[in-house]
Amino acid sequence: EGLMPQDLINAKPVAAAVKEFFGSSQLSQFMDQNNPLSEITHKRRVSALGPGGLTRERAGFEVRDVHPTHYGRVCPIETPEGPNIGLINSLATYARTNEYGFLESPYRRVKDAVVTDEIVFLSAIEESDHVIAQASAEVRDGRLVEELVAVRHMNEFSVKAPEEVTLMDVSPRQVVSVAASLIPFLEHDDANRALMGSNMQRQAVPTLRAEKPLVGTGMERNVAVDSGVCVTARRGGVVDSVDASRIVIRANDDEVEAGEAGVDIYTLTKYTRSNQNTCINQRPLVKKGDLVAVKDILADGSSVDMGELALGQNMRAAFMPWNGYNFEDSILVSERVVQEDRFTTIHIQELTCVSRDTK
Fold first, then answer.
1. Domains of the chain by range and CATH?
2. Cβ of 48: how many Cβ atoms within 10 Å?
3. Mapping DSSP to helix (H, G, I), strand (E, B) and coil, where does residue 331 land?
4. Helix (H, G, I), strand (E, B) or coil at 33
5. pTM metric for this prediction
6. 40 φ, ψ (degrees, to nearest 5)
7. Could you give the count of Cα atoms lying within 13 Å of 230 in the half-sphere of its Cβ?
8. What does the record give as EC number (predicted)?
9. Dihedral of CA 285/288/290/294: which sign?
10. Mean pLDDT by 10 residues, the chain (359 residues)
């Protein structure tokens, strides 16, 4: 009688374990906040290091190498160059974990050469018995039309008749990670260069004026929204007022539940320092009186233009010699690039100094 929970349970070891994990664990990291892509990539990272894992010195070639079961689960391209190569990987675009912690990849069911819309998620163990066609296999009126279809079966590549196919890939980009799927015409690139490209996109500093790419892959909008740097509408409605730092939306009557406020107020982040000392700033996209629906983009974040990821600038390039100034990997830049602030960036640093009054 009269016992309190703290009389029965000692919370100190639990608190200590939580503190240790978040405070000093190898896997508790400071978010890479260079740009929206580096944020989302950091959150999707898969590591073989850390407590209960391998160490860099002990990991051999086999552990680091690409394995057939990586297909659709772990990206074969995106991994750091250097001592960590192959030990730190990135989750593939559509991969998810199942209840046992194994990575699963989605597939469309195929019955008698007819491709259905039913989607199943399978782990590497479950998929080995299936005959899986590629996403690029030719389908006409819902049927596989080629006489022989390129398939994966028992971790091997081969060709089989369309009637033998049981599953089909969901999309050509389910093999690669988010960063690699932002590279246009990835299939024409050398794997080593694609790896460098995936890693270097994460180092792009947000420019003063973002400009969305002329050539994209269709993933730009998804990355911008899913990284969380844009402001999206929680409920549909009409824009009541907009200024640089806040957006007020009067929600639709049918979306307001009893006891809820009928107004949504979104406060924008203005000129804040990121972990990498770059500038985080949100700019409103909507005007007063605009109609918005749920999940519409209300404000751009850093490196986002009209709701699309915009890591760089669209420049006109010429491949030509210029008095030796562009020898090997040197480039020549027009003065107008500087005048138009094309690559101007804002960096915010926080400096602290201690003043002591000594007697």
1. 103-174 (2.30.150.10), 229-309 (2.40.50.100)
2. 16
3. coil
4. coil
5. 0.89
6. -65, -35
7. 28
8. 2.7.7.6
9. positive
10. 84 93 91 94 95 91 94 96 94 96 96 95 94 94 94 94 95 95 96 96 94 94 94 94 95 86 93 94 95 95 94 94 94 95 95 92
